[in-house]
Amino acid sequence: MIDFLFHYQKNIGIIKSFDSFGKVEYYDTDENIRKRYNLNFDDKMKKALIEIAKITISEELEYNLQGIYPRYDVKTMSPSWAISDMLTGIYFSIFYMRPGLELYRKCENPNCDRWFLVKTTSTKKKYCSSSCSNSMAQRNHRKRKKELEKRNP
After folding, report:
1. String of DSSP letters for 4-70
2. Which domain holds residue 45?
3. How far is CA 41 from the centre of its chain?
4. 77 and 42, same domain (yes or no)
5. CA–CA separation, 129 vs 116, rounded Å?
6. For residue 76, what pLDDT is reported?
7. How many domains, the chain?
8. What is the spatial distance between Cα 70 and Cα 80, in angstroms, rounded to a whole number?
């Protein structure tokens, strides 16, 4: 990171200040900075910047995942995660995100409030478990049976 910042300031311009909104102020004019940027911000610099971004994201995630620990839920008789606060939960979902491979879906059983991972290739999966699927199949069977009895008394 230090090498990148050294070469950036040597080849592009020396940074005077920056703010949390991404505005960077240099000791040189904007026109000179733009010229040097277009000449010197090459593929090697872009690749280095991407590597720095990856390291930064990794460290940010690792730091913010400290409030998570595994636990066993006796109501559902299954393992789960204890998450200390909402921000930690958001980082946890980012940690488990696999764009293009998986997505989260809410179980369609109205008696269940779980979310589960679905591979994007298996978009037909509606329930988090076979017990929820069986429960809904029984419910739908009873509902159809009642409707049939109403039509044919």
Report:
1. HHHHHHHHT--EEEE-TTS-EEESS-HHHHHHHHHHH--HHHHHHHHHHHHHHHHHHHHHHTTTEEE
2. 2-62
3. 30
4. no
5. 9
6. 84
7. 3
8. 6
Task: Report d(CA 123, CA 10) in Å as an integer.
Answer: 51
Which residue in the block uniquely carries the two structure tokens 């509902």? Answer: 143
Determine contact, residues 36/14, Cβ cutoff 8 Å.
no
List of residues 6+ apart from 52 with CB closer than 8 A: 1, 4
State yes or no: pLDDT of 38 exceeds 90.
yes
In this prediction, residue 141 carries a pLDDT of: 94
Q: 102, 122, 103, 112: which is closest to 78 by C-alpha?
A: 112
**pLDDT at residue 34 tops 80:** yes
Same domain (yes/no): 58, 75: no
Q: Which two tokens stand for residue 93?
A: 């979902």
Question: Do 89 and 139 have their domain in common?
Answer: no
Cα torsion 93, 99, 102, 104: sign = positive
pLDDT in tens, 73-112: 888 888 888 888 888 888 888 887 766 667 778 899 999 9
